[in-house]
Amino acid sequence: MRVIEEFREDHRVVRDGLIELSNALQSKDLERAAEILEKLNKLLGPHFRFEEEALYPTLRRFLGEYIDQLLREHDEAIKSAKEVSELISKGEMSDDEAKTAASKTRSLLVHVSNCDGLAILAERLDEREMEKLWKRFDELKNEGVPLLEWAEKIRARA
Prior knowledge:
This protein has helices at 2-26, 30-63, 66-89, 95-107, 109-116, 118-122, 127-143, 147-153. The chain is built from 8 helices and no strands. The model has no long low-confidence stretch (mean pLDDT 96).
């Protein structure tokens, strides 16, 4: 069950980070927004990779085509992260850009909530499957490839 505990803890950190990022963007505190985005980038690389390479395929037997929706949500999250990163790197943003970026960031909270619910299904896996998931999660966290780097260089899904 270690994998479920760590998986859920990641979601708590991401939830809080997205809320903080949204607030920083809304107030146009670009320095703070950049710090938060970098923290999320480092956390979400291994997390998304684990989901796509290990967890989602394992849970497809329970969820079927819903897994495809979760993958599309990842696509959207990656796109939003790139857009927000580019916006922050400009060094300034308009009120409209800040409002839009904050709104996009908040919209990602739905995926965090949906994804956290997968933990209850994962509890139905046998001990061997759980150990395999834990091993892969641990490997990916140790590799530490950030989200945007993974999405650009490693991710199988374009």
